[in-house]
Amino acid sequence: MPMPSEHPVGRVSDLLSPEPVLSMQGIWKSFPGVVALQDVSFELRRGEVHVLLGENGAGKSTLMKILSGAYRKDSGAVWLWGREVDIKSPGDAQRLGISIIYQELNLVPHLTVAENIVLGREPKLAPGIIDQKKLFSLAQSQLDLLGVALDARAVVRTLTVAQQQMVEVAKALSVQSKILIMDEPTSAITEREIGELFRIMQRLKEDGVSIVFISHRLDEIFQIGDRVTVLLDGKNVGTRSMKAVAKGELVRLMVNRELKEQFPKKTATIGEEALRVDHLSRGGVLKDISFSLRRGEVLGIAGLLGSGRTDLARALFGLDPIDSGSVTVEGRLTNIDSPQKAIACGMGFLTEDRKTQGLVLKLSVKENIVLPSMEKVCRAGIINREKERRVAGEFIEDLKIKTPSADQKVLYLSGGNQQKVIVSKWLCTEARVLIFDEPTRGIDVGAKVEIYQLMNRLTADGAAILLISSELPEILGMSDRILVMHEGRITGEFSATDATQEKILQCALGIHN
Amino acid sequence: MNSIAAYGRSFGTLLGLALLCLLLWTLTPHFLTVSNLINVLQQTSIIAIVAVGMTFVIITAGIDLSVGSVIALSGVVLGSVLATGVPPLIAGAIALATGFLCGLANGLLISYGRLPAFIATLGMMSLARGLALMYTDGRPISGFSDTFRLVSTGEVLTVPFPVILMGIVYVTAHFVLKRTKLGRYTYAIGGNEEAVVLSGVNVRLYKTAVYGLCGMLCGVAAILLTARLNSAQPTAGIMYELDAIAATVIGGTSLMGGEGTIFGTLVGALLIGVLRNGLNLLGVSSFIQQIAIGSVIIIAVFVDMMLKKRSR
After folding, report:
1. What ipTM was estimated for this complex?
2. CATH number of the domain within which A294 lies
3. How far off is chain B from A235, nearest CA to CA, in Å?
4. The pTM is what?
C-alpha cells in the first residue's frame, strides 16, 4: 500500500503505482464574489480510493465538477496518464475515462436498467432501430461483471436508491471509465447496502479503477479509503494516508483556519424565554429536539447539509407538519401548522434561498416589505398608498437599504440589500422570534457586517434569533449559545465561550468521544 | 421610472395598434369613421371583458381554458330564466352567479385539489359545454323582451351600452389590480408563490378568488352576448378562450406570471378587434383573417421576448 503521502508521489517508491493516473495542479476557480478553489493540487493513483473531505462549501464539488467537465477551471493543469488534457465538457471527460456519480442520481426513471446503462450508445440493427436483444445482453453482462444481482429488464423507478447507484456504477464502467467520482454515495442508503457498495468498490480497485470518494462519514472513509485529501475554504490543506491518520487530525485539518474575520458581536441583555421546543420529532428528519431561546439571545445552530437544520426551521414555521412534541412561543403553548399562525405568534423566517423563497423578485422593494403585513396598509382591502410608502420608506431608511426608490424591483438590488428587504418584511410584522437561515450566504463582506450589526440591534431591542449557518466562524462569532445537529438530532450544546470549530465539527460529524 | 418600464411593452403594442389604424385608414377611408370605430369597440367589448378575467388568472401564472364554455352555460341559464318571465336584473344576477360558480369550481380544483390549471379548466371547458347542451337539449333559446335587449341596443350620447360596460369593467379591474390587496397578491402569487406562502398569505383563498372573478366576468360577457344575438345558444363562445388569451399576451402579460397590465390587455383586445374589422372592410376572407391574427400573436410575443432579453 502507498506510503505516507504528503509528499509528491514521485518521491515515494511505490511499486504498485509509481505514477499517478491523474494529477490536477494549481487549480484556480472563481465565481462572482467568491474564490472557490485556490491553487489546489490533487493526485489519484491507479486502483486507489481517494477520499475528499471538507466542510460544506470547502470546494470538493467544484474540484470534481472541473474534473468531470461540468465547470471549466480558471487556471491550472490537469494531467491524465502523463499527458496534459483539456476537459471542456462532460463528453470530453467521458471520452477520457472519467465518470461522476452525483448524489442526485441521473437516471431516467421510466426506462429499464439496461436502457439506462447503454443510454446514448444503443446497439442498432439498422439506423434508428435498436437491437433490443443485444442491448439487454450487453447490459446484463456489465451487471454480472460487477457481480451485481440485478435484472437488466427491471424498470429503474422500481429499484431502491442503492440499486440505482449500482446501475450508475455499471453505466460508468460500461464506457470503460478508469476514474470514478462518487459524491456522497452512502448518504441515502442503508448499512447493509453500504457493505455491498464497498464490496463492489473493492472489486473495481482490483481491476485498476481509481475512485474519488466524497463523504462526511468518518467511520466509512477509514473502512474504504486508501488516502484522504482535506479541503478547507478552497485550499488543499493536506493529503494523508488513511492508515497514518487519526480522526482527530482530520477534524482539525477540516477547520484549521485562523478566525481573523471580525464579528461585531454585542451581547444583549438576555430576557424571558421567547421560544421553547420540547421533544419535537418529524419523520426521519427531526428526532426528539428540545431547546429554548430567550429574548436578546442568538442561538446558533450548526450542522452539515442534511443534518436537519432547515427542517427544524420549516417545522417551527408551520411549513412541515410535526409528528410529536410541543412548541411554546412567549410562554404560550402553540400549535403552529401554517405560516399564518407562525407569523401571528410573532415569528419571522429568513429562508436560506432568498430568491426562490424570500422575495417576489418582480415586485418592488416597497411591495415586498409590506407583503406579510398588508392589513397594516389596507382598509377594506384597498391599499393606502400613502401609508404603504411611508411604512416601507421607514425601513428603507432605518436599515439603509440601497435602492434608487421604494418602487425599484428587488430583482435589481444587491444580495445584501435584498436580504435587508427580507429582514424589513419581518420587522414590519413586528416579529419577535426570528429564524435566520444562512443570512449571509452569497453576499459580500461589507454587507455581511451590516447584517451582523442588524442582528445586534434586533437582540438589543429584545428579539430572539435562531441563527442557522454552514459557516462555523459566523456561528462562533455571532451566537450566544450553539447547538449542533447531526442526522436530525441535537448532538452538542456549547456556550459561546466554550465552543471551538473543532468541537462543533466533531458533533456535526457524529463523532462521540 | 419603473412604471414606465412596466408600461413600455403596452406602449409598444399601442404603437402597433396606431400603425395598424393608420394603415387601414389609408387602405379604406371608411375605417376611420365614428360609426365604424364605435362598431369596433362594440364588437370587441365581449372578448375584452373576458380578457380582463384572463389577465388576472394569467398574472397568477395560471390559465383558464373554460371561459368560452362558461359563457355558453351562463348564457343558456340566463336565457331560460328570462323565458320564464323573471325580471332582467334578477336574471342577470343569476347569469353572473353561474359564471362565478364555474370559476369557483376551477379555483377550488386548482388551489385545494392541486390540479394544474390547464387540466382543471380543460375539464371545465368540456363539462360546462356539455351542461349547456344538455340543459337546452342543444337548441338555442331565442326572443327576449326589449327591456333586456337594451343591454345591447341602448346607448348614452351615441356610445353603446356594451362599450360603457367595458369601460366600467376596465377601470374597476385596473383599480383592483393596482390598488387592492387582491390585486397585489395576484401579482405576488404569480411572481413567487412560495415566497407568498412564507409571508403568511392564504394563497389558496386568493387564487380561488381570482378564478371566481374570471368566471363572473364570463357571466357579464354572457349577458352581453345573449342580448346582442337576442338568443342564448349552447354553442356560443367557442374559441373565445383563445382570443382572450391572445389579447392578454399581446398586451404584455407574461404566461410565466407576475407581470401584466389591464391597460395592455385592452390594447391587445383592440388590436385583434381592429385587425378583424379592417380585414372585413377590405373583404379579406375569414380564413386569411385567422392566419393574420395567429401571426400577430406570434410576432407580438416574439418581439416582447427579444426586448426583455436585451434589457437584461
Report:
1. 0.87
2. 3.40.50.300
3. 35
4. 0.81
